Every structure is written in structure tokens, then in C-alpha cells.
Amino acid sequence: SLYRRWAEFMAAESWKDISVPVRTTEVIDRSDMAKAGES
User: Fold this and answer.
1) pLDDT digits 0-9 by tens, 1-39
2) Cα angle, residue 16 at apex, residues 26 and 7 outer, rounded to 5°
3) How many alpha carbons lie under 13 Å from residue 8 in its C-beta half-sphere?
4) pTM, entire model
5) At how many degrees (to 10) do helices 21-38 and 2-18 cross?
6) What's the first-to-final CA gap in the chain, in angstroms?
7) Which of 23, 26, 29, 30: CA 20 to 30 A from 37?
8) What is the largest distance, in Å, between two alpha-carbon atoms of the chain?
């Protein structure tokens, strides 16, 4: 839903603000791998 997309975007933006770049990359890589595994 649109609200969920907005909430996910806001969460991602706050995560970028408070996280270390290396950790952010690690999380993104893991979520991309999980999505690839689902499809």
C-alpha cells in the first residue's frame, strides 16, 4: 500500500541518517539477496 511504501521510505531515510555506511551497505546487500531468493 502507499502508506507502507511511505513508512518504509521514512525508515530507510532515518536508517541512513543514524547508520554507518558499511552497515547500510551490508543490510542492503542482504535484503537484495533475500528478494532474489524469493523470486
Assistant:
1) 888 888 888 777 776 666 555 666 667 777 777 777 765
2) 105
3) 5
4) 0.32
5) 150
6) 20
7) 23
8) 31
In contact, 16 and 24? CB cutoff 8 Å:
yes
C-alpha cell at 13: 531515510
The DSSP-derived string for 1-39 is -HHHHHHHHHHHHHHHHHS-HHHHHHHHHHHHHHHHHH-
- Residue 34's identity, in one-letter code, is A
Q: What is the pLDDT of residue 20?
A: 57
- To which residue does cell 532515518 refer? 14
Q: Find out whether 24 and 15 touch, Cβ atoms under 8 Å.
A: yes
